[in-house]
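Try this one yourself first.
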């Protein structure tokens, strides 16, 4: 009798655990609810990347407190992502789950693996599991990352925010992640900065250090049904942000209306904002960061009489992520303005790239001085480039997202996806009567140089001294290789990764070619576990490309130059 009673009690207990943790309440063929009794810090959500999105609404006390999109596992778990349960208080949480798409419904939803694999835990393992995770480039600890956002410098600390998906390693749930660094190289992960709300997810934008009011103000695009501009204020140096109650601060009927870049313009004693709108950059001004006055647009000129439209620069895609700054022209006392205009697609090698315009800006209108299209970096993995606000010593330090929308979601990593480029200092230089943007690896990278080595390191800097044309081949025993070539006669520099591992995307193999402004005497090549960035010593050439060698390149052949290889410290 006692034994029977124990069995009955045990099976009731077991049923109740099952009901809470594994058996969802079914509400249709693609809709279910799961009640969760909060016992631990996180709910680990199982992700299967090839599946379609499921929307999870988190309900506490009958109120929706969060909504997120996750590729919940159907029959295989690729990895887990943590949903923070602590923030919901001690009681029960109800997960209202709707699966999208039809592929899943070949099987019964109740049998999906996710119900069995969702589990509570007090910890989430963030130990690196990726052979392609760079050693000295910024990456998110886990999850997807695209554009660098809101970068600023204050009190000795560089702040880097970024487009982040905390619930998967593909683009979704845009949130501002946050990292900080004292040297632009070693980054420390910080708590999430700005999260989606009823106005939308949090797209790209910028931060300004408002010295007068001793605050940091973030501007971002609220990507809801429409794209609008919002702001958030930090009174603790960027640690936490409070969204402005009067958001949005700028609206429009345009579809593509985003990526506000703001800066203080001492020449007009006002703030300026540059915004990407379709295939134009719009310029605004404001005295208080809240009321924005439209000043002018740049990119398309319409002839008032004939109606004819003249395009400036490349217009084969949408203009995104602008930046605008005044720079010194090297070796002169001249200063000019640089307008950065990221474009996708339409890049010189397909997909995303960073174009720029050199000209004048009077606080109201930007006027370009050239008619040709200019690219800041001639690789295929250099996008969403923007600079730090308030950088020390008048520097203009840029960081680019090191990927390309053509294949960013497919590159062969899982725990995280995408890295940022090394920091680069921008200036201007003159060549044959034209003014171009100069790109120099930031001086902080010199401090990374370790001892010289005789074998090609997996992560390091290679300095190649040249006297003329030069060919550099990096290879491994699998026959994979990348070839760099400087052609002194044609005045081009090229990187060929067509014989590099690429089975994840037909758009990956490519040969990228750059024009060379003046002779190259020395190259600086930064190699990390999945990237190669090449600069010339004069800061007139930059080329950024990803590579995913299945085994590290361990062989280097240099014809026409002398290579010195440094380990990274
Ligand atoms: C550029 C971009 C931005 C947008 C963000 C969304 O890569 O498309 O225009 O704000 O990414 O994640």
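Now uncover the answer:
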């Amino acid at each position: 009798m006692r034994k029977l009673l124990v069995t009955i009690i045990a099976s009731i207990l077991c049923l109740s655990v099952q009901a809470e943790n594994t058996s969802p309440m079914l509400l249709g063929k693609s809709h279910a609810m799961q009640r969760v009794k909060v016992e631990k810090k996180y709910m680990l959500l199982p992700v299967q990347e090839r599946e379609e999105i499921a929307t999870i609404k988190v309900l506490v006390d009958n109120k929706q407190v969060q909504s997120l999109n996750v590729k919940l596992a159907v029959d295989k778990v690729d990895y887990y992502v943590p949903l923070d349960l602590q923030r919901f208080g001690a009681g029960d949480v109800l997960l209202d789950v709707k699966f999208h798409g039809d592929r899943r419904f070949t099987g019964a939803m109740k049998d999906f693996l996710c119900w069995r694999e969702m589990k509570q835990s007090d910890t989430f393992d963030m130990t690196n599991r990726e052979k392609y995770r760079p050693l000295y480039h910024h990456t998110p600890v886990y999850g997807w990352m695209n554009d660098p956002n809101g970068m600023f410098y204050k009190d000795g600390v560089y702040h880097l925010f970024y487009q982040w998906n905390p619930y998967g390693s593909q683009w979704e749930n845009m949130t501002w992640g946050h990292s900080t660094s004292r040297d632009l190289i070693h980054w420390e992960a910080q708590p999430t900065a700005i999260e989606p709300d009823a106005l939308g997810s949090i797209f790209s934008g910028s931060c300004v250090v408002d010295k007068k009011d001793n605050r940091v103000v973030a501007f971002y695009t609220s990507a809801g049904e429409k794209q609008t501009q919002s702001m958030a204020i930090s009174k603790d140096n960027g640690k936490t942000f409070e969204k402005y109650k009067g958001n949005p601060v700028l609206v429009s009927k345009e579809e593509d209306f985003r990526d506000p870049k703001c800066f203080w313009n001492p020449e007009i004693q006002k703030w300026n904002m540059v915004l990407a709108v379709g295939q134009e950059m719009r310029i605004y001004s404001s005295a208080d960061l809240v009321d924005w006055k439209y000043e002018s647009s740049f990119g398309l000129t319409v002839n008032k009489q004939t109606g004819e439209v003249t395009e400036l620069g490349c217009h084969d895609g949408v203009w995104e992520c602008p930046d605008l700054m005044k720079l010194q022209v090297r070796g002169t006392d001249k200063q000019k303005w640089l307008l950065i205009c990221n474009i996708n697609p339409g890049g010189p090698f397909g997909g995303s790239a960073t174009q720029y315009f050199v000209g004048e800006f009077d606080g109201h209108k930007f006027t370009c001085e050239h008619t040709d299209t200019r690219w800041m970096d001639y690789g295929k993995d250099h996008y969403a480039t923007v600079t730090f606000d308030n950088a020390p010593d008048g520097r203009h330090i840029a960081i680019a997202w090191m990927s390309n929308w053509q294949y960013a979601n497919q590159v062969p990593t899982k725990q995280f996806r995408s890295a940022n480029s090394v920091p680069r200092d921008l200036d201007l230089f003159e060549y044959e009567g034209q003014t171009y943007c100069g790109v120099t690896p930031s001086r902080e990278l010199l401090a990374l140089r370790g001892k010289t080595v005789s074998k090609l390191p997996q992560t390091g800097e290679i300095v190649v001294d040249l006297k003329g044309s030069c060919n550099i081949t990096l290879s491994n025993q699998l026959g994979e290789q990348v070839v760099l070539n400087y052609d002194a006669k044609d005045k081009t520099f090229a990187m060929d990764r067509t014989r590099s591992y690429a089975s994840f995307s037909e758009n990956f193999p490519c040969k990228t070619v750059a024009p060379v402004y003046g002779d190259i005497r020395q190259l600086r090549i930064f190699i990390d576990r999945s990237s190669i960035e090449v600069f010339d010593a004069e800061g007139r050439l930059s080329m950024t490309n990803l590579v995913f060698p299945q085994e590290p390149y361990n062989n280097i052949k240099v014809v026409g130059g002398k290579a010195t290889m440094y380990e990274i410290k």
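Discussion: DSSP finds two helices and 41 strands in the chain. Residues 3-20 have pLDDT under 50 and may be disordered.
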